[in-house]
Specification:
single chain; 279 residues; mainly alpha; 82% helix; 0% strand; transport; CysT_permease; transmembrane helix; sulfate transport
Length: 279
């Protein structure tokens, strides 16, 4: 028995080392090396060429449109996602489990199918689209359609980030505030919201990062109109097709760097929250 235990102890460190090495190798091959390869090729022509590639009018407009629509989407998602999580956790109603299941549907639906659904419902040939058109508004094949598509594909992020925190939240402080005469809105803003902020920011950051690279649904609803509805991912695809590889790489590098910075910031926020909770 003692010999077997010693043999097992000798094998455990080597098994752990092998597992770590395999995991890091897989991460490197699948994520790190492709990122490095694209980044090196993007900056290889030099800083001036890189700046010229992203400041070219069509590329610059595509980047601005991507970031602006993503920011608008995040602002809407923060409010609606937090409200939806609140309703799911704090209220009981018929069909609650079905609603809870449907929230994850955007994760499962192919993004191209999302675009087709939105065109079918809001497009000019639909009843809703015709009514909207008579009112002088336009959603599909215009910038509001891009925001709508981004809202759909990022719908679960804020909800799923806030929901677990609300479930585990101790309601004693809320009840104490209510006992002291605080109104529900005052209690939410001063007692509940400070606890929810890290999870809201996490959901918002993930939504924003996801929106920067959205292609499938946006290409269906945007109409691919330069200087109007062409976002950065659509621009990259078009430049690759037209043979402008350096322009596509430069814009791709900007999107990659932005997403990476957001994820690093979220990771730092989560570590800080974990340290705070531990104290």
């Amino acid at each position: 028995m003692a010999i077997g235990a010693r043999t097992l102890q000798r094998h455990r460190p080597s098994q752990g080392l092998t597992l770590r090495a395999t995991s890091l190798f897989y991460l490197g091959v699948m994520v790190v090396l492709p990122m490095l390869a694209m980044t090196i090729q993007a900056v290889q022509p030099g800083p001036r060429a890189f700046w010229e590639a992203i400041s070219e009018p069509y590329a610059w407009h595509a980047l601005k449109l991507t970031f602006v629509t993503a920011l608008i989407m995040v602002a809407v998602n923060v409010v609606t996602g937090t409200a939806t999580a609140w309703v799911l956790v704090r209220y009981q109603f018929p069909g609650r489990s079905l609603v809870n299941a449907l929230i994850d549907l955007p994760f499962a639906v192919p993004t191209v199918v999302t675009g087709v659904m939105l065109v079918a419902f809001y497009g000019p040939s639909s009843v809703v689209g015709a009514v909207i058109g008579k009112a002088g508004w336009k959603i599909i094949y215009d910038q509001p359609g891009i925001i709508l598509a981004l809202l759909f594909v990022t719908y679960p992020f804020v909800i799923r980030s806030v929901q677990p925190v609300l479930i585990e939240l101790d309601r004693a402080e809320e009840e104490a505030a209510a006992t002291l005469g605080a109104r529900p809105w005052t209690t939410f803003v001063r007692v509940t919201l400070p606890t929810l902020w890290p999870s809201i920011l996490t959901g918002a950051g993930l939504s924003f990062s996801r929106a920067l690279g959205e292609f499938g649904s946006v290409v269906m609803v945007a109409g691919n109109q330069p200087l109007l509805t062409k976002t950065a991912p659509i621009y990259v695809f078009g430049e690759i097709e037209s043979g402008n590889r350096s322009g596509a790489l430069a814009v791709s590098a900007v999107l990659l760097a932005s997403s990476l910075l957001i994820l690093v910031g979220l990771n730092a926020l989560q570590r800080r929250g974990g340290v705070h909770d531990g104290n």
